[in-house]
Design brief:
Layout: E1 4-9, E2 14-21, E3 28-30, H1 34-39, E4 41-42, E5 45-48, E6 54-56, H2 57-65, E7 69-72, H3 75-80, E8 84-87, E9 90-93, H4 94-106, E10 118-125, H5 132-141, E11 150-154, H6 155-164, E12 174-179, E13 184-193, E14 199-212, H7 214-217, H8 224-242, E15 247-253, H9 263-269, E16 274-278, H10 281-294, H11 298-302, E17 303-305, E18 313-321, E19 324-331, E20 342-348, E21 353-360, E22 367-372, E23 384-394, E24 397-406, E25 417-423
Parallel strand pairs: 1-10, 10-11, 12-15, 14-17, 15-16
Antiparallel strand pairs: 1-2, 2-3, 2-4, 5-6, 5-7, 8-9, 12-13, 13-14, 18-19, 18-21, 20-23, 21-22, 23-24, 24-25
Length: about 425
């Protein structure tokens, strides 16, 4: 049976869906029409007046333009605010509407696969700050795909995975991605620390909030003079941005770069750099991430991505298993903090502490974090069963909990718990 990967770029204005079958090499993108294939699926719904009939994307826009339906937009923004949306006098939860949009848009894949054929589904979003983690988590829980097969990541990580699966000569030097898909221009820079093993990759984001979409900068009145002025603004911005950087490849994303209004900027970017007009990078990068989860390749052991939402260290515990001491991994560097965390039951040996071994990825030596088990009853070695729970409240805050489970009828549990909070710089 064929297995598929889905990459879903969920954005407040335009969303995109890519997929591929695990035995193929290049993701494909789905859409309802040619415009959605080129630009993406508008993240909007419309409700037909008087009945519970919903459309999404360009079909929703057309229905609203005909006056037959009420258009609902900015779904992610309203969901992040925890808002209710008034539609024909009835209040709808914005997160529920966002889930409805995602489920309806995924129906575009119904002729290709069923939910049981999905090996991994990856949601990629511009930000996971604030309430966005909870929102995307609710969306993931509302999908017909099991939660354990759903991965959540940011655009930065999708860029990393997309480039990792391109010819290596494109990313042997730093790579810049300029996203002009709205509401303003953004730039991402992929760079690598090749002095470490594995090589650590980073993607830095820069927002140019003053550079709005061309139609707003030109105030809907396109003219050679206004286009030339905007071109000069972005040209100066590009000069400043590339200063001191060793960028070898540039990708230009979004409808803002369409047309011939930015010729000076493009000419400058092409000086000593390879420039590509791209699309669907985030959804396709998400697909490549899913492929690497399902079928790890050699590059995955040679390179690791560390974004702001990633753990920067490995965490483990030495346990006695079947009479032999083994290192048990608790959290791995490069994993999302919100996906990390474990619960282990184990038997305590001679110690009265639980020593966790933290090994940072920057090459510094390992550090031992000890949880003191003060108040634990005196028992013989290997006569105390403990439950260790490690969770993360952010990428900079880890919570360690240890609970005394006792040891059968001979040494009943005291119910005692110990907690330790570790904060990272």
């Amino acid at each position: 049976m064929a297995k598929y990967i889905i990459g879903y770029d969920l954005n407040d204005s335009m969303s995109q869906i890519s997929y591929f079958e695990l035995n193929t090499s290049v993701p494909e993108t789905v859409a309802s029409d040619a415009e959605e294939e080129r630009l993406g699926i508008p993240t909007v719904l419309s409700k037909r007046k008087g009945v519970a009939q919903w459309e999404f994307g360009n079909a929703a826009i057309r229905a609203a333009q005909l006056g037959n339906a009420t258009l609902v937009s900015q779904l992610m923004s309203f969901a992040a605010a925890g808002a209710k949306m008034d539609i024909e006098g009835e209040a709808y939860d914005a997160t529920d509407l966002l889930i409805l949009f995602v489920r309806r848009s995924l129906n575009l894949l119904s002729m290709v696969m069923s939910p049981s054929d999905v090996e991994y589904m990856i949601f990629t979003v511009a930000s996971l700050e604030g309430k966005f983690v909870d929102i995307v988590e609710k969306i993931a829980s509302g999908m017909p795909v099991p939660r354990e097969k759903i991965i959540i990541q940011t655009y930065e990580e999708s860029i990393y995975y997309y480039l990792l699966h391109q010819p290596e000569d494109l990313w042997e030097r730093d790579v810049s991605v300029f996203d002009y898909s709205g509401p303003y221009l953004k730039a991402y820079e992929l760079w690598m620390n090749r002095a470490t093993e594995p090589v650590v990759a980073f993607v830095d984001r820069t927002d140019f909030n003053d550079i709005k979409m061309p139609k707003f900068m030109m105030k809907e009145e396109e003219s050679m003079e206004k286009a030339d002025r905007l071109d000069e603004m972005i040209l100066q911005l590009a000069h400043d941005y590339f200063g001191g950087k060793r960028v070898g490849t540039v990708f230009l994303l979004g409808e803002g770069f369409e047309g011939s209004w930015c010729n000076k900027t493009l000419k400058f970017m092409c000086l000593g750099r390879r420039v590509f007009q791209g699309r669907n990078m985030y959804s396709k990068g998400a697909c490549y991430c899913g492929k690497d989860k399902a079928q790890p390749c050699e590059l995955n052991s040679e390179y690791v991505f560390l974004g702001p939402d990633k753990l920067k260290f490995n965490l483990g515990l030495n346990m006695v298993v079947a009479g032999q001491e083994e290192y048990i991994a608790i959290a791995d560097a490069g994993e999302n903090w919100y996906d990390s965390g474990v619960t282990y039951d184990f038997v305590l040996g001679n110690s009265r502490t639980v020593p966790l071994i933290m090994t940072p990825l920057d090459g510094k030596g390992a550090e031992t974090i000890e949880v003191e088990l003060s108040g634990l009853p005196d028992r013989p070695p290997k006569a105390s069963r403990l439950r260790l729970t490690v969770s993360f409240e952010s990428e900079q805050r880890m919570k360690i909990e240890v609970e005394d489970l006792g040891f059968g009828e001979f040494y009943p549990s005291t119910g005692r718990k110990w907690e330790k909070i570790i904060e990272f710089a």
